[in-house]
Design a protein that fits this description.
Blueprint: E1 6-11, E2 15-21, E3 27-34, H1 41-56, E4 67-71, E5 75-76, E6 81-82, H2 95-102, E7 108-112, H3 113-124, E8 133-138, E9 142-148, E10 151-152, H4 183-187, H5 189-198, H6 211-219, H7 223-247, E11 251-255, H8 263-276, E12 286-289, H9 296-308
Parallel strand pairs: 1-4, 4-7, 8-11, 11-12
Antiparallel strand pairs: 1-2, 2-3, 5-6, 8-9, 9-10
Helix pairs in contact: 1-2, 3-9, 5-6, 5-7, 6-7, 7-8
Organism: Streptomyces spongiae
Family: Belongs to the ROK (NagC/XylR) family.
Pfam family, one: ROK
């Protein structure tokens, strides 16, 4: 018998993953479906129900005590609804109610995907042992979450720590969120690639124009590619420094696809941080790469529900 067995869902614009996770963070059963992101809301819910169906069919299901959901956002944990930017069929969608209908009214905890990844990194990854941390996901978008005083800090609606929409350029480009000069508008993968192309970088013979291709060119010394990563790093540094100044974090963890660029991003980020994190209490701030990999969302959703239930191993 596994003690502290919980179910977890990780819902994104590409895939919906589910798992049964024990109190040590081990994934015992997993299921996955592609997200039919451009279809109507009930079709998307059908994919979630498919994942849940596989989990409930497991002989271990009878021991499951609660379910955690990490979802692309914005989410509203207080209302139990989700409105993921990249799933247009879900706007104020009553996800918690629908999930409870499938799972026999298990207790459900909903958080944003950035908060979920933060929970995972704090429990078992790069932020372990840190009482005050910011964890960031830098990929198609830029998200994040906070650990304050040793506790995950999701905020009332589950979106606290959403650093991608701090403005770091007062008169900057309009962001799709409606604001200007957001971190995400400068530092996300598609925006790194867009800026490199606008400034004259050209993809190789394979035609790959992704941020990963820009990172490869930067590693090869391409000045335009390097400059695009440096601009992204500067935006991230300003956002991280603002956060550290506001709530006194001592570590920032960078994950997501763009985070995999390694030193192409982290070296200029650490250099830029010296220009922004200048007060005595933020000068010791360290920046490091995430450790949890692709299962972070699932492990984090489990961590959040275990912590809420007072499980000793997760807190």
């Amino acid at each position: 018998m596994h003690t502290d067995l919980v179910a977890a869902l990780d819902i994104g614009g590409t895939k919906i993953a589910g798992a049964l996770v024990d109190g040590q963070g081990r994934i015992l059963v997993r299921a996955q479906r592609a997200t039919p992101a451009q279809k109507d809301g009930d079709t998307v819910m059908g994919a979630v129900e498919g994942v849940l169906g596989e989990l409930t069919a497991s002989p271990l299901w009878s021991g499951v005590e609660a379910l955690g959901i990490g979802s692309a956002g914005p989410v509203d944990a207080s209302a139990g609804t989700v409105s993921p930017v990249n799933v247009p069929g879900w706007r104020g969608y009553p996800l918690v109610e629908r999930v409870r209908a499938v799972t026999g009214d298990l207790p459900v905890e909903l958080i944003g995907d950035g908060v979920a990844i933060t929970a995972a990194e704090h429990w078992q990854g790069a932020a372990r042992g840190h009482d005050n941390a910011l964890c960031m996901v830098v990929s198609t978008g830029v998200g994040g979450g906070l650990v304050l005083n040793g506790q995950l800090h999701p905020g009332p609606t589950g979106n606290a720590g959403h650093i991608g929409h701090i403005s770091v350029d007062l008169d900057g480009d309009l962001c799709p969120c409606g604001s200007r000069g957001c971190v995400e508008r400068i530092a996300s993968g598609p925006n790194i690639a867009r800026r490199a192309l606008e400034n004259g970088w050209r993809p190789g013979p394979d035609g790959d124009a992704s941020a990963a291709a820009v990172a490869a060119a930067a590693r090869g010394g391409d000045p335009v590619a390097l400059a695009s990563f440096e601009r992204a790093a500067q935006a991230l540094a300003a956002g991280i420094a603002a956060t550290a100044t506001l709530v006194e974090i001592d570590i920032a963890v960078i994950g997501g696809g763009v985070g995999k660029a390694g030193d192409v991003l982290l070296a200029p980020l650490r250099a830029a941080l010296k220009n922004y994190a200048t007060l005595s209490f933020v000068q010791r701030l360290t920046v490091t790469s995430a450790q949890m990999g692709t299962d972070a969302g699932l492990v984090g959703a489990a961590a959040a529900v275990l912590a809420r239930r007072g499980s000793a191993t997760a807190v």
